[in-house]
Amino acid sequence: MQQVAAEAEARALERKFDIVVLVSMFLAILSGFHIHQMLTAGDWSFWIDWKDRMWWPVVAPIMDITFPAACQAILWSKFKMPIGATFSCAGLFFGQWMNRYWNFWGWTHYPLNFVFPETLLPQAIVLDGVLMITNNFVLTALIGGELWGWLFYPSNWPMIAPYHVPVEYYGQLMSVADLIQYEYIRTSTPEYIRMVETGTMRSFAGGVLGVSAFFSGFCSVIMYFIWWYFGYFFGWTKFVKHSKV
Amino acid sequence: MAQATTQTVSISIPEKSAFSWKNLWIALAIITVFEIAVNVYERTFAIAKGLDYFTPQYQTYWMSILYTELILEPTTLIALCSWLWVTRDRAMENLAPAEELRRYWNLGLFVVVYTVLLYWGASYYTEQDGTWHQTVIRDTDFTPSHIIEFYQSYPIYIIAGVGSMVYAMTRLPAYARAFSVPYAVLVGSPLMIFPNVGLNEFGHTRWFMEELFVAPLHWGFVMFGWGALAILGTWLQACPRVLELIKQVYYGKPATAPAVVLNEPEKVTKMELCEI
Asked: Which keywords are on file for this protein (chain B) (predicted)?
């Protein structure tokens, strides 16, 4: 009887440690991922008028496959937990929304439909699914990485499409997104700062988005490989003796 | 603090209160109240008193915060680490398994507090600065948002991170005579975000003012942010020992002695220890 009680207590204690590990992991990965994301792809994420067809679907997937790949490397390899990508992207999503709501809107009053973040969750679920089904990070890099790039724009399109409706404003053609940024003044982001598609003499106007998505899928494959091994590095369990430091 | 001095074979099961959430709830309540107060202060005085550095109100309402926190933070860090060091366990080779397990629990709660503060610093107040940049054209490096972000929220999580590491080094055999690489990265790399402010402010003051968030000037923060991923290695390293201790304390199975762990900490990082 005493043994049964002891085992029950042991199991309860293991669950308590699980909560400590999961909560701290969620918050740490959230923080690292958010810093990384906001300073490498942040400007496209902040503003609806930066969410274009050429740069946003290239920069965001390439920069955002990083932490998912690293988390998968440990969570899948060591624990067979198929949630690495979703776990990190949900963390990023939480950090972004907390901030857009309480600060961009709550403090400095930019409307939320100007500053809502992109979503990565559909691609993250696909990436986790591919890894779980194949149990093979090479195939996940090749298939999941391409899908990560391709799916980015389609999964965000339902959110941004309403802002691409054209309007005539003082004789000029503008999208609603352009009009929003024109109306809600940003002191430090003049229009020329934003990096969006402006057209070139070497491009075909109709093929912009597909080509960008394909390119970002290819780069995501490479980033996935690099960051999978980065994940191994951050999951290294080495000790170094004090005398050697 | 109860100190066991002998190694025993039959181990009495510790009280449930040894693994209580109470200290975490207290810490989270303090953090929550503090952060709400900071947000209320920002909303009350940033636009009202914080738009022009060259006014006396700015000195009263904002620079006073900066000077106060710059005194309080290093004092707190030194006091905390000194206290942890002075009260360190000087006979760790005799540490009882139940006590070691309890200390791992304390460490776990300490790390949770660290990551909560890391969230406030690295995620909340950092992106918050993004929107303040769109509200003012700055006339100082010490904007209200920077006074909170760089000089308050970052030092606070650094205090918690370094404190938790000193706790581990002074209380747990695995960390007493060797540095855990992932733990050092977990604490040290986000710590370096604060010194990197030096590069950032130099760049903005001497080089360019406009706020492109993705400017290469900011990528130092990015690289140091990666270190948060070392939480993976930190738990991968600590969890096998925790499970080994649970099995020893509750099931009476043999476990690696603290004296061995002191000298060969890597012995207890093996995943096999997690198997039932």
From this structure: Membrane, Monooxygenase, Oxidoreductase, Transmembrane, Transmembrane helix
Q: Does A6 touch chain B (CB under 8 A)?
A: yes
Query: Which of chain B's residues have a Cβ under 8 Å away from the Cβ of A74?
Result: 232-233, 236
* The token pair that represents A59 in the structure block: 């920069």
Q: Which amino acid is at A53?
A: R
Domains located in chain B, CATH noted: 36-268 (1.20.1050.50)
**pLDDT higher than 70, residue B179:** yes
Helices and strands: H and E segment counts in chain B:
13, 1
Provide the percentage of residues in chain A whose pLDDT is more than 70: 100
A186 contacts in B (CB within 8 Å)? 134
pLDDT of B10 above 80: no
- The phi, psi pair for B94, rounded to 5°, reads -100, 10
Q: What is the pLDDT of residue A158?
A: 97
**Amino acid, res. A75:** L
Q: ∠ CA(B20), CA(B21), CA(B23), 5° rounding?
A: 100
pLDDT, tens only, A91-124: 999 999 999 999 999 999 999 999 999 999 999 9
Q: What is the DSSP string of A70-119?
A: HHHHHHHHHH--TTHHHHHHHHHHHHHHHHIIIIIITTT---HHHHPPP-
Q: What is the pLDDT of residues A132-146, one digit of tens each?
A: 999 999 999 999 999
Q: Global pTM? A: 0.94
Mean pLDDT of B122-147: 93
Q: Which two tokens stand for residue B38?
A: 């900071």
Distance CA B249, CA B103 (A): 14
ipTM of the complex model: 0.95
- Give Cβ neighbours of residue B43 (< 8 Å, ≥ 6 apart): A106, A107
Interface probe, candidates A108, A223, A226, chain B, greatest B C-beta count within 10 A: A108
**Which of B39, B114, B182 shows the shortest C-beta gap to A237?**
B182
d(CA B271, CA B129): 42
pLDDT of residue B181: 96
CA distance to partner chain B, nearest, from residue A90 (Å): 14
Token pair, residue B196, equals: 């990197």
CB of A88 closer than 8 Å to CB of A71: yes
